[in-house]
Amino acid sequence: MSGYVPLTSGDNAALKNAEINAMNSEQYGAMAECQFTVANQAALSAIPSYYKVTGKLVRVMDSDGLGTIVTYSWSGSAWVAVPFIRAVGTIVASATSIAITGDIFHVSGALAINTITGGQTGQEIVIIPDGAFTLGTSGNIAIASTAVIGKAMALYFYGTKWFPSY
User: Fold this and answer.
1) Among 7, 81, 126, 133, which is disulfide-ready with 94 (CB 3.0 to 4.6 Å)?
2) What is the mean pLDDT of the chain?
3) Which helix (H) or strand (E) holds 77?
4) How many whole angstroms separate alpha carbon 12 and alpha carbon 2?
5) Under 8 Å CB-to-CB from 140, ≥6 apart: which residues?
6) pLDDT tens per residue, range 138-160
7) Helix, strand, or coil here: 93?
């Protein structure tokens, strides 16, 4: 039941809530979120009142053609944008293959990295180089690159490959 729960006119509240609750527990466990597809942020007002639960998070996919996702929380009287905070991971030593430890993490050493494990399509990570390692293309990295110590490098996972920002 993964994915978005589209809102349509005439939704049955009990059935839609059951569908959302099943999706929430499957995808998010205790940190349940609802996901809706709306035309733009102004369309939040179209979300039916039975979805407006204080503290409940709603991820809105804005159909602006850019894939923008904004998270909102119902405050009891209005939808309030929730800032996106990235998870900081532990330092990883450069090696032929490294694993993601968070959304942002440091990479030490100067060995070539050819594979980054743990990616999902659409995911972005930020690596902060503590060493002048290189990214090679013999694994799942699309474009070769040389890290600059202290210059954050964003990588985007699309399909089966990571695409570095520089």
Assistant:
1) 133
2) 75
3) none
4) 20
5) 114, 115, 116, 119, 160, 161, 162
6) 999 999 999 999 999 999 998 89
7) strand
Smallest CA-to-CA distance from 36 within 54, 55, 56, 123 is with: 56
> Nearest to residue 164, comparing CAs of 149, 150, 147, 67?
147
- Of 28, 19, 84, nearest to 50 by C-alpha is 19
Give the whole-angstrom CA distance, residue 103 versus residue 127. Answer: 8
Q: Which of 16-20, 75-79, 86-90, 133-137 has the lowest mean pLDDT?
A: 16-20
**155 neighbors 117 (Cβ within 8 angstroms):** no
Tokens 């059951």 correspond to what residue? Answer: 18
More confident: 60 or 9: 60
Record the tokens describing residue 100, joined without a space. Answer: 């993601």
CA–CA separation, 27 and 80 (whole Å): 23
* Euclidean distance between CA atoms 68 and 60, whole angstroms: 8
- How sure is the predictor about 66, in pLDDT bands with cuts at 50, 70 and 90? low
Domain ranges of the chain: 13-81, 92-164
* The Cα angle at residue 34 between residues 28 and 36, in degrees rounded to 5: 135
